[in-house]
Amino acid sequence: MAKVTYTDLREVPLTTLSHAVDDWKDMVDRLGTLDDAARDDMLAKSERAEWAGVNATVTREFVRKTAKEFGDALAEARSVYNVLNETYTDLSGLQSDLRTVAREAGSSSVRITDNGDGTVTCSAALTGPYTDEALKACEADAKGFQKRINDVLSRAEEIDTTAAQALRRSYGGADMYNFGHTEYDSLDHAEAERALELAALGPKMTDRQLAEFNRLVKYNGTEPDGEFATRFYKGLGGPKESLEFYARMVRDDPHEASETRTKALAEMQRNLGHTLANATEPDAPPGLDGPKHHLPESWSEEFRRLGTQQIELSTTYAHENPYGYQVLGGLLRYGDYDPGFLNPIAEHVVQLHDTNPSLFARNAPLTDDPLGFNPSGDLGSGFVPLTSVLEALGNSPEAAERFFTDPPTAYREDGTPAPKGTLGFDNYFDLMANKDFHWPADQASEALFNDSLDHGPDAFGHALEAATTGRPHDADLTAGAPWHSADAAQLTQRIVEMFGSQPALIDDGAPLAALRDSFGEMTSDYMPDFQRVMYMGQTGDTSTYPPFGSAASFDPSKAQNFLSVVGKEPDAYGAITNAQQAYTGVLVDQALNGPSKSTLDMNDRVTNAVTSGSVIAGIMSEARANSAYESHEEFVKATQEKAKWTERIIGGAAGLIPVAGEPIGWIVEEVTNSVVEKAEKDSLNEAKEKGDADYNSGRHGTISAAELAVDRAARSNANINEDTLRDLKTSARVAAGDSFNTGAAWNEGGQ
User: How confident is the model at residue 15, as a pLDDT?
Assistant: First the structure.
């Protein structure tokens, strides 16, 4: 069967399909009238009649069969209509999306080539000024457009294939003289049925069949109504059968472990995880949009019961049969799960681990198992459920916040609640942040053992990041972010209090050092709060530094201790540096252009605006100089990669701080370039014995950034003449330099 090509989907007129939908709707209505007449008139009269002789058996049965055929004809017509109607709706939407992307690509000087096999190749086609920078940007755009178009085509191919299969089954093939074949309530129904047919093959699925299975689950598993997701998991049989299916797919695969197969299994893991999250999402309250189909709450209870039981995959090596939680963990690593489903499971797993850290190590394979139950390979092989559930929380912000802020519930080993049970801790953050908490390695291979010791703490950091920021730990920052809740802000305070008091817990080489990259993201999201406490203290007025939602309040010395050790990690340094400079730029713009009844002159207001951010810049520079990283190139690279924090901070601040200009329009690109340039200057001298040169480069970069912020903001104020601008820049330079010195003078023990 030919693939749906770019040209096909872009050019095909769907009006014919629309007319067919209308015709089948008319057919359903007419057959409905005939069916009513057959049942209510013909069949009813036949059943009431006083038949005798042959008529009592032959004629009455003939009437019954005839009446049934009318009903079957109606069911078949309704099935065809349902499939065609949803196919038309979905393909129309995809065609519109494709044409929109094509227009955007053309406007971005990107050429689209139809490969004729259901994919396209996009390439740069610059027509304007040709520079290396312009070409690089255009090539990056081309990659983005190529992925978007190929995703649309893949989805269209899946719809076209499934619709054709569903129509053939509705018709019934050779048995053309009988109605009443397979009936579909929707296209989702047909797609779920096909996915279950493939799932029944288990590991015997060919590469082509696995690719089809992945398309079906990927494009339908996250549909908002949850119909496909729920039908699919119910169709597998239940929690036990779902675990058996996934376990056999990743452990009993008879195919050669090729790169293609491994990637397909990793994609299957992601798709099944997102689908399970959707299927276990509860229905929204009446009147609100939300899932209309979901699995019963008993699934969470059954998963907990199965968690400590072994899933029988082998009778020869029974000791290697996985525990339910090891298998389930592979699925939970992907998807945004409802707290009602996930948190009881996560609590149970953490409590089991706290009671017996070696419980799930009993069945670790004696030889290296590269896939385990986590084919994606991210953060371990999947034999340690603790890592898996923490990673699940890292993708489920609401669940993560409640997990770390709600009082714990005690569970028995079989997963049932223990209302009178006692725990040796008050909350999960304090339990896992304790230096004595055991973090097991999640690798069967001894060669990878040491590298895997960070997997658990890394997942712990992801969970805390989601809980404090309200977004999945790997979410796209440009997509916006929610305001911080009161519970999230209080959790952030506890984190800063804990590690600001005991920075050695996350210092270079410490067991929890892997938390720092997530803490860098958290700090950046709370940049207004960190800047506020630098000079205004723990009870500072939030009106000067409006928070992103509920305010977090820190002890200044502990906040500086926290920053000084977190900033030693390149990714954390990059995120905080971008966020700090962006927020400082907004404050400067507010000082020069925002409405104010203050009697202070502009010089004083600019000085106040750059002071706290420059303290943080000094702390970051000193942290970088004291880092255990041999080369500082990692810091420059991380600063470039974390540049999206500029847009996040400015976008968030723009809704809180009224400004005269257009912040996002004139600040994002310049701030990003300025931050990266500063990071590059900081790295001119890599050897630690040349720390003075590093320090001076960082100081000059901070001063230049403050001066640039003033220069930028002044463009929006026609009342600032050249002499005033020069004085304002001088004030900014002096304040930034002095404040940088203050920040750089701090170390992990205080000032």
Answer: 87
- Measured in residues, the chain has a length of 751
DSSP character at residue 38: I
CA Rg value for the chain: 31
Q: Report the distance separating Cα 460 and Cα 346, nearest Å.
A: 12
Residue with tokens 């080539």: 113
What's the burial of 741, exposed, middle or buried (CB within 10 Å: 0-12/13-18/19+)? Answer: middle
Residue 503 pLDDT:
95
> CA angle, corner 372, sides to 369 and 378, nearest 5?
110
Question: Of the ranges 317-331, 561-575, 733-747, which one carries the lowest mean pLDDT score?
Answer: 733-747
Query: DSSP string covering 39-97, please?
Result: IIIIIHHHHHS---THIIIIIHHHHHHHHHHHHHHHHHHHHHHHHHHHHHHHHHHHHHH
pLDDT tens track for 417-445 = 998 888 989 999 999 999 999 998 876 54
Q: Are 560 and 616 in contact (CB under 8 A)?
A: no
Angle between helices 60-107 and 132-171 (to 10 degrees): 170
Please identify which residue in the block is written with the tokens 């310049």. 670
Confidence of residue 174 (pLDDT cuts 50, 70, 90): very low
Q: pLDDT per residue over 541-573, tens digit each?
A: 787 888 999 999 999 999 999 999 999 999 999
pLDDT at position 690 over 50: no
Q: Which of these, 702, 680, 670, 588, lies nearest to 635 by C-alpha position?
A: 680
Mean pLDDT of the chain: 82
Q: Which residue has the tokens 């950034």?
A: 705
Interhelix angle 324-332/339-355, nearest 10 degrees? 130
> Are the beta carbons of 733 and 706 closer than 8 angstroms?
yes
Reported confidence tier of residue 686, pLDDT bands at 50, 70, 90: very low
Give whole-number Cα distances, 314 to 203, 246, 248, 311, 383, in Å: 15, 15, 10, 9, 17
Q: Which residues contact 296 (CB under 8 A, 6 or more apart)?
A: none
State the SS3 of 441-502: CCCCCHHHCHHHHHHHHHHHHHHHHHHHHCCCCCCCHHHCCCCECHHHHHHHHHHHHHHHHC
Note the pTM of the prediction, 2 decimals. 0.84
Token pair belonging to 420: 């009178």
| Inter-residue contact 313 to 321 (CB < 8 Å) | yes
Q: What is d(CA 373, CA 352) in angstroms, rounded to the nearest whole number?
A: 19
Longest dimension (CA), the chain: 116
In terms of C-beta distances under 8 Å and separation of at least 24 residues, what long-range contacts does 64-68 make, across chains too?
66/38, 66/42, 67/38, 67/39, 67/42, 67/43, 68/180
Task: Please report the sign of the dihedral spanned by the C-alpha atoms of residue 570, residue 572, residue 577, residue 582.
Answer: positive
Per-residue pLDDT for 488 more than 80? yes
In this prediction, residues 510-533 reach a mean pLDDT of 94
- 74 Cβ partners below 8 Å, 6+ apart? 28, 31, 32, 34, 35
- CA-CA distance, 475 to 456, in Å (whole number)? 20
Higher pLDDT, 475 or 463: 463
Query: 130-147: per-residue pLDDT in tens?
Result: 777 778 888 888 999 999
